[in-house]
Specification:
The protein is mainly α. The protein has a single domain, classed as Winged helix-like DNA-binding domain superfamily/Winged helix DNA-binding domain (Arc Repressor Mutant, subunit A), CATH 1.10.10.10. The protein contains eight helices and three strands. The chain has a three-stranded antiparallel sheet with strand order 1-3-2. Helix 1 crosses helix 2 and helix 3 crosses helix 6. It is elongated.
Length: about 160
């Protein structure tokens, strides 16, 4: 931002925004490190599929493709590779014989669980570096910030594989 923009915002508001931006970069760093190991065994698009299935359970191919912004015909070939790798499996829908569901397999679930646990552990380690009062202040501020921001739409986070 230009100095003029800073002056227009007011120094205090600019400093507040910069503080939150620094914290967001720190959290994104935690996210990136937590997912990095998973991306050694799967691609980011594959990880995104695993995250959707981990949070929603078995999903029809068409709905899964739509959630990920993909075309069902090419998405099916993409799923073939994931199925061959033991990450997902096709299964018949209990509601319709014509519908096929994509279900997360234990190998795929483990990749998501491990990334989530790495993130949880990293955040825990950061919080442990703070004294009790600092930790309480940070947690209260994070709760307030989260409430003010609102829960992001799942599609928004899916870009990052979250």
């Amino acid at each position: 931002m230009s100095p003029t923009g800073r002056q227009a915002q007011g120094s205090g508001a600019y400093d507040e925004v910069e503080s939150v931006l620094r914290a967001s970069r720190a959290l994104l760093g935690v996210v990136a490190r937590s997912v990095a190991e998973a991306l050694e065994s799967v691609t980011l698009p594959q990880f995104r599929v695993l995250v959707v299935l981990a949070s929603s359970g078995p999903v029809p191919i068409g709905i899964l493709a739509a959630k990920l912004g993909s075309v069902p015909s090419t998405f099916s070939r993409f799923l073939d590779r994931m199925e061959d790798a033991g990450l997902v499996a096709r299964q018949p829908s209990p509601d319709s014989r014509r519908e096929v569901l994509i279900a997360l397999q234990p190998k795929g679930a483990a990749i998501v669980e491990e990334a989530t646990e790495r993130r949880r552990q990293a955040i825990g380690e950061i919080l442990e570096r703070l004294d009790r009062n600092e930790r309480a202040a940070i947690l209260a501020a994070m709760d307030d910030f989260s409430a003010a921001a609102g829960e992001p739409a799942p599609e928004t986070l899916l870009i990052l594989g979250l």
